[in-house]
Amino acid sequence: MENRLTLNNEEISLKEIIEKIKCWFSYIFSFWKVLFFSGFIGAVLGLTYSIMDKPIYTASLSFAMEDEKAGGGIGGALGLASSFGFDLGGSGGGMFTESNLAELFKSRSMVEASLLRPVNNVDGKTISLAEMYIQNNKWRDKWKDNPKFRTITFLPGSDRKKFTREQDSIIGIIYLKLSKGALTVGQKDKKVSITSIDVSSTNESFSKLFCEALAEQVGNFYVETKSKKARMNMAILEHQVDSVRGELNSAITGVAVANDNTFNLNPALNVRRTPSARRQVDVQANTAILTELVKQSELAKVTLRKETPLIQVIDRPILPLKVEKFGKLKGIVTGGFLFVFLVVLFLSFKNLFKEV
């Protein structure tokens, strides 16, 4: 008896829910004119937005880096372990690890140095990438009435340390806009040691040129930093080689002069042969030193070649670039659906408050 009563109560509850849904549909469709009008307005606004929306051009560049020092030993063992799914970490001592490399590309110094590189604009004039960004966004039209910003220019290769406060603020804004969304750096596949750079902007030329300039700037900084100690050591050795070679040449000349002065000298006056003997000792000593320094210099050159990493660009951005734009059909559908949904939501809450 109790089971029947429970079943009847459940059937009554289900019927009530169905009836409420029917009533809700009837109530909503009673405002079909409002729904149609709101959908039409939403579709028009969506179409307007799709027409006014600027296309976004994305330039992509991928490269791989090879460092001979990281190829064997523990690095090989870690690579073998990672292939089996074990993460044993790394040495953590290098500043150019995969995790740090992305931050290096997004660092302010690298981005600003890239923005000051020279490029050719549409008129054929040589300007900086920062100036191109300002022209693309029509900032100078907004600065016409502002005497502080009206005369500001960013010349190619200008000294960053001599910038004024206003120049610092402008290039800082450009850096924030590029680093917060416009610039993406990372590995698309963690199993592959290939780094990709994506630069997005509303100007196709700027996206391509800035992407290439940033990759070149970071690449030069990477090579210079990784081989800095080896280059310093080689420069010191080359300076010492030149110095000792000069002393050796001077000693050889001194021996010749001393021999000329003692030509047909009386055997009883051997004391006058002392300068020649001293010069010969200098020649022998400098010859031995120079031989060792030349050997060390050649070894330093080999070390420098080993210390210098190889950066190989795989894919460069090629025009036309990948473009993303809010389509007209998408704008019409999205705008119409959004407005109809908001009206339905409003009518539903209005009906609910009435019942309460």
TrEMBL record:
GO terms for cellular component: plasma membrane. One of its GO terms (molecular function) is protein tyrosine kinase activity. It comes from the Bacteria. The chain crosses the membrane at residues 24-47, 331-349. Keywords: Membrane, Transmembrane, Transmembrane helix. The keyword Transmembrane applies. InterPro entries: Bact_polysacc_biosynth/exp. This is Chain length determinant protein. It comes from Flavobacterium phragmitis.
